[in-house]
Amino acid sequence: MQAFPHSTTATPTAIVVPPSLALPVIESAFPRQLHPYWPKLQENTRLWLLEKRFMPAAKVQEYADGLCYTDLMAGYYTGAPEEVLQAIADYSAWFFVWDDRHDRDIVHGRAGDWRRLRYRLHAALDAPRHHLHHPDPLVAGFADSVLRLYGFLPHSWNQRFARHFHAVIEAYDREFRNRTEGYIPGVEEYLALRRLTFAHWIWTDLLEPSAGCELPDAVRKNPDYRRAALLSQEFAAWYNDLCSLPKEIAGDEVHNLGISLITHAGLTLEEAVDEVRRRVEECITGFLEAERNALRFAREIDDGTTGGKELSAAVRACVGNMRNWFSSVYWFHHESGRYMVDSWDDRSTPPYVTNEAAGEK
Hints:
By secondary structure, the chain is mainly α. Helix content is about 70%, strand content about 0%. Helix 5 (about 80-105) runs parallel beside helix 8 (about 155-180), helix 6 runs parallel beside helix 7 (about 135-150) and helix 14 (about 255-265) packs across helix 15.
């Protein structure tokens, strides 16, 4: 089946999902949604990548649309105001470029470059306005996207977002050291680190500006709401590991649930793939239960007052977008050139990356 009701390409083709990665329940029970702003979103994010000099113009022209970064976000935050979705999509594109820089810094042994970038990102997160013109495009672009995200909700949301992303930066540093040292974390250690490197709570935080409402602690910490949010993110991270395993084995990676299972649980490659898939499927069934409970909780919030009705609607919107994450992530992995390893000249080197440390010329 196709990822979108109407294909996002000029020449529609059906997406064929390999049997080892196919999840029939996603294809049947999680119909994919798409924000109507998507075509403009794709165009604007492509222009933003060029303006901020994240990728050479030729690579943007050849690869940006095929990487499907905007498709992923347009399929997730489907009810967001256009300005919010644009800020999220640009930030998401930045995140992927940052992830690629991190990978290339590891591959080329650029520990000093990575250390400087890490400190600059921490600083830009706390004072984005002061870093808008930083000479490293990755720092300046990060500051731009964060400053825009900080404009939608109260300062308390901004503080929470910053706290969560400071932890993501430090988790990337832990991964840098693990990969540099060839250290493969144990399964539980990996799972805890993965929740940070995948930025579980960042994508969950961004549900709130999409719904136009900062959720109070009593909602965000409600066990049913929190479980639904966590399972939607765990599904995404572990399905990513399942799809990325060939690429990461080719690149001598150490950060993948399958690799941790092979190393520390003594599983064969085939057994590890089966175990990751089992965990992915458990996320789906667990979410369906958590979703029901979270939606019941949303109904209970509606006490007949204007505030109660608005908060209830915001919670329902957030839970609805958690559901969207499943289908958007699933199809992204089968449409994006980021995972088409077999088409690369070098399976360990994505064709859309540059090997230079852009901020260190």
